[in-house]
From TrEMBL, chain A:
PROSITE patterns: 2FE2S_FER_2. This is (2Fe-2S)-binding protein. The keyword Acyltransferase does not apply. The keyword DNA-binding does not apply. It comes from Szabonella alba. Keywords: 2Fe-2S, Iron, Iron-sulfur, Metal-binding, Oxidoreductase. PANTHER family: OXIDOREDUCTASE WITH IRON-SULFUR SUBUNIT. Residues 2-78 form the 2Fe-2S ferredoxin-type domain. One of its GO terms (molecular function) is metal ion binding. InterPro entries: 2Fe-2S-bd, 2Fe-2S-bd_dom_sf, 2Fe-2S_ferredoxin-like_sf, 2Fe-2S_ferredoxin-type, Beta-grasp_dom_sf, Diverse_Oxidoreductases.
Automatic annotation (TrEMBL), chain B:
The keyword Chloroplast does not apply. Signal peptide: none annotated. GO terms for molecular function: FAD binding; oxidoreductase activity. Residues 1-167 form the FAD-binding PCMH-type domain. Transmembrane segments: none annotated. SMART domains: CO_deh_flav_C (SM01092). This is Xanthine dehydrogenase family protein subunit M. Keywords: FAD, Flavoprotein, Oxidoreductase.
From TrEMBL, chain C:
Keywords: Molybdenum, Oxidoreductase. It holds the Pfam family Ald_Xan_dh_C. Gene3D superfamilies: Aldehyde oxidase/xanthine dehydrogenase, a/b hammerhead, Aldehyde oxidase/xanthine dehydrogenase, molybdopterin binding domain. Residues 21-139 form the Aldehyde oxidase/xanthine dehydrogenase a/b hammerhead domain. This is Xanthine dehydrogenase family protein molybdopterin-binding subunit. GO terms for molecular function: iron ion binding; oxidoreductase activity. InterPro entries: Ald_Oxase/Xan_DH_a/b (IPR000674), Ald_Oxase/Xan_DH_a/b_sf (IPR036856), Ald_Oxase/xanthine_DH-like (IPR016208), AldOxase/xan_DH_MoCoBD1 (IPR008274), AldOxase/xan_DH_MoCoBD2 (IPR046867), AldOxase/xan_DH_Mopterin-bd_sf (IPR037165). Signal peptide: none annotated. The keyword Cytoplasm does not apply. SUPFAM superfamilies: CO dehydrogenase molybdoprotein N-domain-like, Molybdenum cofactor-binding domain. It comes from Szabonella alba.
Amino acid sequence: MTKVTMTVNGKTVSADTEGRTLLSSFLRDGLGMTGTHIGCDTSQCGACLVHVDGKAVKSCSVFAQEVAGAQVRTIEGMANADGSLSVIQQAFQDHHGLQCGFCTPGMVMSAAALLAENPKPTEHEVRHYLEGNLCRCTGYHNIVKAVLAASGQDVSGLGVAAE
Amino acid sequence: MYDFELVKPASLAEAVKAMGDDGAQALAGGQTLVPTMKQRLASPERLVSLTGIAELQGVSAAEGRVTIGAATCHADVAAKAAAHYPGLAALAGQIGDPAVRNRGTIGGSLANNDPSACYPAAALGSGATIVTNTRDIAADDYFQGMFATALEEGEIITAVRFPVPQAAGYVKFAQPASRFALVGVFVARFADGVRVAVTGASNNGVFRWAEAEAALSGDFSADAVTGLTVPADDMIADLHGSAEYRAHLVGVMTARAVRAAG
Amino acid sequence: MPKDGGIGASTKRREDMRFLTGKGRYTDDINIRGQVHAHFLRSDVAHGRINGIDLSAAEAMPGVLRILTAADFAAVGGIPCGWQVTDRHGQVMQEPKHPVLADGKVRHVGDPIAMIIAETYEQARDAAEAVLVDITELTPVLDMKAALAEGAVKVHDDLTSNLCYDWGFVEENKAAVDAAFAKAAHVTTLELVNNRLVANPMEPRVAVGDFESHSDQYTLYTTSQNPHVIRLLMGAFVLGIPEHKLRVVAPDVGGGFGSKIYHYAEEAAVTFAARLVGRPVKWTSSRSEAFISDAHGRDHVTKIELALDDENNFTALRTDTYANMGAYLSTFAPSIPTWLHGTLMAGNYKTPLIYVNVKAVFTNTVPVDAYRGAGRPEATFQLERLVDKAARELGVDPVDLRRQNFITPDMFPYQTPVAVVYDTGNYQATMDKLLEISDHAGFEARRAESATRGKLRGFGIAHYIEACGIAPSNLVGQLGARAGLYESATVRVNATGSISVYTGSHSHGQGHETSFAQVVAEMIGIDANQIDIVHGDTSNTPMGMGTYGSRSLAVGGSAIVKATNKIINKAKKIAAHLLEASEADIELKDGKFAVAGTDKSVDWAGVTLAAYVPHNYPLESLEPGLEETAFYDPSNFTYPSGAYGCEVEVDPDTGKVQVLSFAAADDFGNIVNPMIVEGQVQGGLAQGIGQALLENCAYDGNGQLLSGSFMDYAMPRADDLPMFTVDHSCITPCTHNPLGVKGCGEAGAIGSPPAVVNAVIDALQRAGHAHVTHIDMPVTPARVWAAMNG
């Protein structure tokens, strides 16, 4: 066992790891932070997506020891300091961008990474950026809408029949 | 997965030393290796992480060549190579998804040589040089079939050197599930001729399409490859497409890659 | 305008708060002190005889506590099937044994052989590699028609053949149907495959078993859509645990789509093992494992024929379907191709004569059961592809042919020739609405624009009907159901007026915590935030049947209405006492009980407090307290319907199909939360488009799954889909439930596959590929290219 220390959501944390301990397992089992989810074993679904040093990373495909010392941000660290929902989270609620909630942490983290890179993405850019995040409930319609809304764009005309 | 020891050398020299032991394997971005290990299909005793080695990072350009450090992730290539070799940067930006591009590296991709990966097409199509800790390997000598390369045991790719063509384009027809290339074609026009490399299609991995190269060297236009066909004999046939379909797509994607090259 | 938080309002979901902040509590998030881990060693061959299992090396591995094989389950029952179908000759179906762990034979890749329990998951996996299983491989049974041939290898040695049943519906109609075909002016025939699918909810299955020896109490935490059903099946039929000693908890569940209805072997195994090893036992499925152990969906091979007279009226319909059951009968498998499929073959049409034949077949594949829509997508796909093909053959507009044969509003209630009675509907209205919202009139211009880019544009239409809220219990009992299909609710009003509603329905994405609260809030006239919806735990909810078949609001919601009405009736009595008025004069409005025609009133909290602090209370005639339970058993199915339109572009060089737009005009009856309803439709559309274009669960000739991970099973992604245009303004309220609701969960997945395929065929035919009359799903680029060049 090797003790790994990193900063998660602004707090310095440590847990014992084996070489094979994945970052997702470090978070879920080591720290009890179960907001990061495991939906596949082939790096496809993105439910485990977190930020490592500001970049979107699938935490199920990175060993904890590889990212020792890194700044990690998870869904648990996304709300505002007062506990209220951040702009992106609020947009997901406002536009019904989630149903069962399982893919949601990864979707929110992915959306946050997108908007950090590209503050006013087009619908096409949002859809393309989210290709590594699978959702089985929403058909993506409201997720895309939520991300566009979170970027400050008017989404009232999306998916509405032309009059 | 099976347990192993993870070592994180800070220099290439340390990495080479760590790779000298039995059962050691290089760990680049891990985007293919980690899922493979989850299936218990790989059982290294020691993984030597290459992503923390500064000398393996970065994109540089000089004398008509772009050199990419082996541990440079796809996202960095997409961003940093754009000014020097836009065709290569565009290809890097099509690999996997954003999170995969933040971890996966060019060295890892070339060392693995997945028959459906994008980078082998760029390396072969550009006539790149694969630089290792011991030697330089020409792309034409490097790729030796599905998952097979010229790398020796313990040899580490340190950089990939690309001659920058006058124009280049890559078009990928994605396998709908994995988003790897069902067929991907990289076309590069140099002063002395055109190179065409095809990934995803063949049972022998990435290959050069000589007929298309000849045609395009004479006339670099999509029309030049119209009517050219590759034999379906050695094409991959699977759930996603027959050998004939892949052979057909090679032609279509080649024409589109020429258009993309502009 | 609906009141915020009341019926008809797009109230934002309260459950989102925990899901958006990482505080959801899914089964895999549950770790019990002392917990150990289970791993299942699964068959890697499709069909084989187990000659022996040597555990000695594995049992000596580090951390291993116990390894169980079939022998350890000798004293318990097998996994039960919940529906018994009787065939066209009056014989009950062949029902094979379904042992918890493979006993003597393995019958599909993924069939569990041994359960290894160890301190850690990795130790269990290590030990699994040391288990030596001596298997003689047998020829796998894969093709359904070959499986029924004389002398075919049998999946189950103790059955007479691989035929589960040969079902005819309605058998008495067969001769009349055949006669109608004999004198038809035109017959359209179509042979098609309804592709096998994997449900793939994003949360893989998990089960945690616990046993407390001091109280003899078992608890199972599981990813289920219906915890009471699991408790009954597992307790009574598998492990012999009485219900009062068995608690089943399904906490937050990350999607189901049918695949989490069934009682699975792993649930029984962890519960059983928890007592054996004296520790809580946890099993978490990997995605790869899910592909070979979750029940699959669809997998029908069908020949369907439509007879028309010389005026293009449908005169008869005949179908011949082979339905794959897989290796064992999953919980509701026999009912899917029969009662949930044959009964829908009338569609929206007044076809007078219908005969449906279904042969259910055992093969060496993963069991097949309900997946979103369950039988109804199969029925709709056949019928709506067939009608489209008929229109092309006859040279008439597919919309007009449908309209001509629609059941008209004046015909309701409408008795179909396939047993069911549609209570209400207006199919011309949904068709009109679709043509409007899809801008059908502008299609030609858009097609011309596509052509300038070298793309082939097509428009496809489908009109579906489905039957939701399967019921009533006494009828389904006659049809072979081994369960009732009511739903339950307990409304517990607390002393200060807040309310906990305990429902037998289960929410795994549907938003019940919000929409059910809207119903109660509307009825009583209080703020919805005073109401909590509690579900998923058999220890505190009344016996309920769970959530599937778009039944929750229509059946579960009706139970809540019933229980709430009981509450209101009792509260009025209390209010009458407090106000010294006659009960008949008490009116409830906006959370206040008033004496009609006076200004005398008492508010909700005043009544609820009196119920629990009954100082001034009619104790001689009324019990204290305010808590009521109701069970609602519907008198009929509900029949949502709708018109769907899809516009695609085909790339003629690659065969790739791009869905450019998709419009849905549904009639769901009344709507409680439009936002949630739209989300349900959008999600269903994505799954239906996925089935039509992307998803393909395929086996090779050895019975190995070719699409065993997301690397080969193409899940729809954000960039595969367009924005959807969804309308639910056509409303014919259900006539027989108190809310007038019909259900919306499956519609999208039912109506969309034929619309997509019809659009592709339309595009190809308009481009001159007249010979392409059908392409099987998924309509992959390779298949389109092959069809165009075939």
